[in-house]
Design goal:
- It is built from five helices and two strands.
- By secondary structure, the protein is mainly alpha-helical.
- The chain has one domain.
- It has a two-stranded antiparallel ribbon.
- A hairpin with a 5-residue loop joins strand 1 and strand 2.
- It is elongated.
Length: 130
């Protein structure tokens, strides 16, 4: 799951470059006499990885528009998706939570594994990473 705008831009550029490279590889292999089936078999692993990255780019773009279809239903991933939809950076979230940006980055990298909801003395829900 892409978690930051910077990661999105980097991955989107990579997907575009890979798409072009795959087409060149296909043409090169066909020019060398490989059959369509052989070309497919040779390039299948790289194409699968490329398609996964392309899917992550599309998912990030959908989340930014408020479309949460396809987001794996885990609390951690939904929290990340909501932050992205709200247009909030990890740094902004850290500021609002009064924690370091490194803490938010680490929590999101781990997809908020072990998160729980607790109520403080004022009966407001607070998130606690355990």
């Amino acid at each position: 799951m892409i978690k930051t705008e910077q990661e999105y831009k980097r991955t989107k550029k990579m997907v575009e470059e890979e798409r072009s490279a795959i087409e060149k590889q296909k043409k090169n292999l066909k020019d060398k006499g490989f059959s369509d089936e052989e070309v497919h078999n040779l390039l299948a692993p790289g194409i699968a990885i490329h398609e996964q990255k392309a899917g992550e780019v599309l998912q990030y773009e959908r989340i930014k528009k408020g479309d949460f279809n396809g987001v794996e239903y885990s609390l951690g991933k939904m929290l990340i998706a909501i932050r992205i939809y709200r247009g909030m950076s990890q740094a902004e979230l850290a500021r609002r939570l009064k924690v370091s940006p490194a803490q938010v980055s680490m929590d999101e990298r781990n997809e908020y594994y072990g998160i729980s909801v607790q109520r403080n003395k004022d009966a407001f829900p607070t998130l606690t990473i355990t």
